[in-house]
Write a structure and sequence with these properties.
The structure holds 2 protein chains of 2 kinds. Chain A is an alpha/beta fold. Chain A has 9 helices and 8 strands. The chains are: A alpha/beta, B alpha/beta.
């Protein structure tokens, strides 16, 4: 199913938005890598939902306003965005940095949201269990450490990125540093407010996640008031990429329950 | 020409073979490779070498700040400066420099420099740097805000040195109700500020601004790059409407002098190679964390060179050929300096006379020969 790509204007910021399908609203918040391509996972969701995949400010084809300086800023921006776009009864899905963002949004205002799916979110810290340092890893190392199944990395490495793609990767990397460098991948003030997210939640975590270790999944499950945890075998940091069908099916089942 | 004898204080007993098994000599090099007994001796010998430079007639002696690395044992260069003050009486002491963005309260830097300036009765030169990329990994400071933090810390320090206190400082990164320096600096209005740099265009534009006109030291670059950065500074100054003075342009360079070119290369070759290949070895990701430079500068950097230690192994031949190091007879070394003087009119030479694993004995001989055979020709 081809996605439509449009431009959304929120305040002074132009956002690139990919959208596909019909049905209840699903908002997908991407991780540190941005949205380099439309995924099979998106197609699976678009069969039953109105799926929106925006590129965050500072990523890909979206503007990079200097006044968005932190994850809380980005969360407040998204509250503006969903209001501006007239979205309501939203099922929110976030991966990695996008999962962190989802939690920052929902602790502030969950009125327009119905459920939460967390795919290996950043945002919390388990003391004594450091995250993988994808800022010090080289490009190939960082890519390989995203996946359990190295054939995913092999396929990406086989294609030399264009200059335009390199520019986008650099832009994304700058923005990721802005939000995630220090403290590394978490907000010390997030954990104590997670009880505010009084929504059905599904947590999905790869058993072989080299960026967010598996211990983090337990902490999320403990802190979210109504969360179920699904661990995915033979899976790295991107469950929706490595096990697209399985994860889409899990989400589908969950949303049917949550939408009821 | 102003002559500075500069020292990095490397940890020479490093097991280079073992170190090569790790990602870098920075940030992640296991500190079990540091032996405190050997290290203590290193401090003593390196300080001796710097003190000796006063007797040889150098105008200044220089130290600098680096963290979590065998490349340099001075995470707190002001401690070394304080020791140097007690053992010297005439030379200026240049701290090249303190890394402003890495601290959470730059007032401490203003205070320490003011203390040193009083302790030395006005012999301090205050270098301000941003710290190299690896230090954003080791300190946790966010490189995305590096420039902002640098500029704000600089403004705070200069105001603390020059404006009557107490006053309040309101920045985005540093916000203080009371700025009221005790002691105030000895020199008036404040110690000279120098800017060591790898040549980023943002730094050139900032340092050359008429409000500052800070001496700009290009560090560890090929002669062509040094000339380009000096001349970029000169052009910038012209755009600002003034002509650059020679005291505004500095060059920091490893230098080794022996009787003949062949002898110099034989004696210093391995040592200078260890400086670039072992002690400076860092990946691109460490050297250039995102946001440390502008997007444009980073793209230029990616296309122009893969960074210090980022490319292939350097050889003494290559380093001499490119003019990154001056190694040879007095005539050869002098010619290299004079050639740069013709190209850029620079007026500050920061000579790194000990580098890599270069021994105390060879360092001493190098310093003696430089002082007797090269230095006299550089006196204007």
């Amino acid at each position: 199913m081809p996605a439509q790509t449009t431009e959304l204007r929120v305040r002074d910021v132009r956002i690139k938005l990919h959208r596909a399908g019909n049905g209840p609203t699903v908002l997908f918040l991407h991780g540190a890598g941005g949205v380099p391509q439309w995924l099979p996972f998106f197609d699976a969701l678009a069969e039953h939902y109105d799926l929106l995949v925006p590129e965050h400010p500072g990523f890909g084809g979206s503007d990079d306003p200097p006044w968005i300086r932190s994850m809380p800023d980005l969360a407040m921006f998204y509250l503006d965005l969903v209001e501006e776009a007239g979205l309501d009864r939203i099922h929110l899905i976030g991966n990695s940095l996008g999962g962190w963002l989802a939690a920052e949004i929902l602790i502030r205002d969950r009125a327009r949201f119905r459920s939460l799916v967390q795919l290996a979110p950043a945002g919390l810290r388990v003391k004594g269990v450091p995250c993988g340092d994808n800022f010090i890893w080289g490009p190939e190392e960082a890519l390989r450490n995203l996946y359990h199944d190295q054939s995913f990395a092999d396929r990406i490495l086989a294609v030399k990125p264009s200059d335009e793609q390199m520019d986008v990767m650099l832009k994304n990397r700058f923005t990721v540093a802005k939000f995630g460098w220090q403290p590394r991948w978490f907000n010390p003030d997030l954990e104590k407010w997670l009880h505010r997210i009084k929504l059905p939640a599904l947590i999905v975590w790869g058993d072989d996640d080299k960026i967010m270790p598996r211990e983090y999944a337990d902490l999320w499950q403990q802190r979210l008031p109504d969360a179920r945890l699904v661990r995915v075998k033979e899976c790295g940091h991107l469950p929706h990429v490595e096990h697209a069908e399985f994860v889409a099916r899990q989400i589908g089942d969950f949303l049917e329950g949550a939408a009821r | 020409m102003k002559l500075v004898s500069f020292h990095l204080m490397p940890y020479r007993p490093l097991d280079l073979e073992e170190a090569a098994k790790h990602r870098s000599a920075w940030v992640v090099l296991p500190n079990r490779l540091y032996d405190p007994v050997k290290g203590a001796e290193e401090y003593a010998r390196h300080i001796d070498a710097l003190v000796y430079a006063e007797a040889l007639g150098f105008d200044a002696i220089g130290v600098n700040e680096h963290h979590q690395t065998a490349y340099g044992l001075m995470p707190a260069p002001n401690l070394i400066a304080s020791a140097l003050i007690q053992r010297t009486s005439r030379v200026q002491i240049a701290i090249l420099g303190r890394a402003l963005p890495l601290v959470n309260n730059p007032i401490y830097i203003a205070e320490e420099f003011a203390m040193l300036d009083n302790l030395s009765k006005g012999r301090i030169i205050a270098g301000f740097v941003r710290g190299i990329g690896s230090e954003y990994h080791s300190s946790g400071t966010n490189p995305y805000f590096s420039h902002e933090r640098f500029h704000e810390a600089h403004d705070l320090i200069v105001r603390a040195w020059t404006e009557p206190g107490p006053f309040a400082f309101h920045g985005d990164h540093f916000s203080l109700q009371y700025v009221n320096l005790w002691p105030r600096p000895y020199q008036s209005p404040h110690p000279p500020i120098w800017i060591p740099s790898q040549g980023s265009s943002e730094t050139v534009a900032w340092a050359s601004h008429p409000d500052r006109k800070y001496p700009f030291l290009v560090t560890f670059s090929s002669a062509d790059l040094v000339a380009r950065y000096h001349n970029t500074y000169r052009e910038r100054a012209r755009e600002y409407g003034y002509e650059v003075a020679s005291e505004q342009l500095g060059w920091a360079c490893p230098i080794y002098v022996a009787e003949t070119d062949a002898q110099a290369r034989a004696e210093a070759g391995h040592a200078v190679e260890t400086l670039f290949n072992d002690f400076l070895r860092q990946s691109f990701e460490m050297l250039m964390p995102p946001g440390y430079t502008s997007m444009g500068s980073m793209k230029n950097f990616i296309s122009s060179r893969r960074g210090l230690g980022g490319g292939g192994k350097m050889t003494v031949e290559g380093l001499v050929e490119s003019g990154t190091a001056l190694i040879g007879s007095p005539k050869t070394v002098l010619a290299g300096i004079e050639r740069m003087r013709e190209r850029t009119g620079f007026g500050i030479l920061v000579a790194l006379l000990q580098f890599g694993v270069l021994s105390d004995e060879l360092t001493r001989r190098n310093m003696d020969l430089f002082a007797s055979e090269v230095m006299p020709h550089l006196r204007d």
